[in-house]
Write a structure and sequence with these properties.
Elements lengths: L13 H8 L4 H10 L4 H16 L2 E2 L9 H9 L3 H4 L13 H8 L11 H5 L4 E2 L2 E2 L2 H16 L4 E2 L9 H10 L1 H6 L5 H8 L4 H8 L4 H10 L2 H16 L22 H9 L23 H9 L6
Antiparallel strand pairs: 1-4, 2-3
Helix pairs in contact: 1-2, 2-4
Length: 307
């Protein structure tokens, strides 16, 4: 049975289903089990992979286990209205090929997925100056399914935030100077660095700063990457688009800036899955470029508890 956009469960290949399962999709496991029910070797692999994903911290919604297989599978390709109303460029992700990501990146944000439903279904899609091949359209169908499942993706691992909740409460209620006074360690460092910024900028940074972000920003990204990411974020702001903060972090990809989707994926795998999770890279704050700021914040405020 074909659904909107020409979606069909039988068109999903094994590799795509495993990718979905790795992103908290219980329907993918169910489909693979049904598909390989008479193949003991492949059925064993499905269940082994599922256990591996759970062991790695991927969480699966137990609600789906109570559903009949046919209803559970339907949730995978019954696309929600909120997804259909998202921009075509929100379909960018690391699973599809780079040339397709480049095409999607160039599409204006006002062009929505639902505007292209008929063309996708009929394998005849052309948007602006981009013509999409049959392979492109098949990958677009998969990307619609991936996006539909995106909100279910959860990992057990919590981020190691640089500022504890109690320390953030001090900052919010009493301000920057009171916040610095509770620092464990070099208060002069924080006075020199933090008091240069407005409390609004500081809040945006402190509330999101984590050691996972620090690890990626300073150890996995290049100097050029650290220039590209803030520029890409600022271009989203200047576009006048609203609510892009809730979109997958892959929405940051910008072909004009020669960005690498695999570098963006580092953040997703660390649990920073949405655009809003890396808002701290946005101008006007340059705190993100202070080499030791994350480490020093974590050591001074990460374990702070109000007495």
């Amino acid at each position: 049975m074909k659904y909107k956009f020409g979606l069909s469960i039988k068109d999903l290949n094994e590799k795509q289903l495993y990718y979905l399962m790795a992103h908290s999709c219980p329907s993918a496991k169910s489909i693979l089990e049904q598909r390989f029910r008479t193949n003991s070797v492949k059925l064993y692999k499905v269940r082994k992979k599922f256990r591996e994903f759970e062991s790695s911290g991927v969480l699966f919604n137990k609600f789906f286990e109570a559903l009949k297989p046919i209803d559970r599978n339907k949730t995978l390709i019954d696309i929600r209205n909120e997804i259909e109303n998202m921009p075509m460029r929100s379909l960018m992700n690391p699973f599809i090929n780079n040339s397709l990501n480049k095409k999607l990146s160039s599409i204006h944000w006002e062009n929505k997925i639902n505007q292209n439903e008929y063309a996708i279904k009929k394998n005849n899609l052309k948007i602006e100056d981009n013509t999409f091949t049959t392979q492109d359209i098949n990958q677009i169908r998969f990307s619609i399914i991936f996006l539909n499942n995106f909100k279910h993706f959860k990992k057990q691992d919590e981020l190691d935030m640089c500022i504890s909740k109690d320390a953030m409460r001090v900052f919010v209620s009493e301000g920057s100077e009171a916040f610095i006074r509770i620092a464990k360690g070099n208060k002069r460092f924080f006075k020199r660095i933090l008091l240069k910024y407005s409390e609004t900028d500081l809040y945006n940074f402190l509330s999101l700063a984590s050691m996972q972000f620090n690890e990626i920003w300073w150890k996995k990204l290049t100097v050029r990457d650290r220039e590209k990411f803030p520029k890409a974020f600022d271009r989203l702001i200047w576009s006048d688009e609203k609510n892009f903060g809730e979109y997958p972090i892959y929405y940051l990809f910008n072909e004009e800036l020669s960005m690498d989707m695999k570098r963006i994926e580092y953040f997703f795998k660390a649990g920073l899955t949405k655009i809003k999770h890396i808002k701290l890279i946005s101008q006007p704050s340059n705190l993100v470029y202070e080499k030791d700021i994350f480490k020093n914040l974590y050591q001074s405020f990460g374990n702070y508890k109000k007495k």
